[in-house]
Design a protein that fits this description.
By secondary structure, this protein is of the alpha/beta class. It has one domain. α3 links the parallel β3 and β4. The longest helix has 12 residues.
Length: 182
C-alpha cells in the first residue's frame, strides 16, 4: 500500500525513477548525490518505497529514539552515533559480513553543505566488503532519480576512484544549487 501511495506522490510531484536499481545483489553501496537539502530524505523514502528496493540508510542516532524511532527503522534506518565515527566504517563492514542483505544508501558528501571533496567512508565500506557502488543522481532540475546501470568497483587507487566519482556527480543540479558537487 505504501508503495502505491509513494508512486502516486512521485507522479503527482513530477518525479521519475530511471536507470537500473541493483536489486539482484545481496550487498551494494548506493552513493546518492548531490545531497543539498533536507528534501533529499523524503524523496529518497518515496523512491525506496515506490521501487520496493528495501534499501538501508544510516541516520543520526537521536532520530531512532521514542516516539518515532520505530518509524525510521521501518524505513530501513540504521542508527549511527556520529560523535564516535572513528569506528563507523569498521562497524558497517561488520554489519555487511553479518547481514545476508544490505543495500546501504550514503551521501558521499557527508553533509548537505558545499564540500571541496567527497568523504571516503562509503568508498572504504565498498572496498573492504568487496561490494560494488551504484552511483545514483538526484537531479532536481529534471525531477529524476537515476540509478546508473554500470556499477562502480573500487580499485586500489583511492584518489583516482574518488576523483572519478566526484566528476560523475559534478554539475548535477540539487535542490540547493549552491551546494552541488563541483
Amino acid at each position: 500500500m505504501f508503495s502505491l501511495l509513494s508512486r502516486f506522490i512521485l507522479w503527482i510531484a513530477g518525479w521519475k525513477i530511471t536507470g537500473h536499481y541493483p536489486r539482484e545483489l545481496s550487498h551494494v553501496v548506493i552513493a546518492v548525490a548531490p545531497h543539498t537539502s533536507a528534501w533529499d530524505f523524503p524523496i529518497g523514502v518515496l523512491v525506496n518505497s515506490a521501487g520496493k528496493y528495501k534499501a538501508n540508510y544510516m541516520g543520526k542516532h537521536t532520530l531512532f529514539k521514542p516516539p518515532f524511532g520505530w518509524f525510521f527503522r521501518w524505513l530501513g534506518g540504521i542508527p549511527v552515533d556520529r560523535t564516535n565515527n572513528h569506528n563507523l566504517v569498521a562497524a558497517t563492514v561488520e554489519a555487511f559480513k553479518r547481514e545476508p542483505r544490505i543495500h546501504l544508501v550514503i551521501a558521499p558528501e557527508g553533509t548537505r553543505k558545499k564540500v571541496e571533496k567527497l568523504k571516503s567512508g562509503f568508498y572504504h565500506i565498498a572496498r573492504l566488503t568487496g561490494s560494488p557502488i551504484c552511483l545514483c543522481k538526484f537531479d532536481f532540475a529534471k525531477k529524476e532519480v537515476f540509478f546508473d546501470p554500470v556499477l562502480f568497483h573500487p580499485t586500489n587507487d583511492e584518489g583516482k576512484d574518488l576523483e572519478y566519482i566526484w566528476n560523475y556527480f559534478k554539475g548535477v543540479p540539487g535542490k540547493v544549487r549552491a551546494y552541488e558537487v563541483g
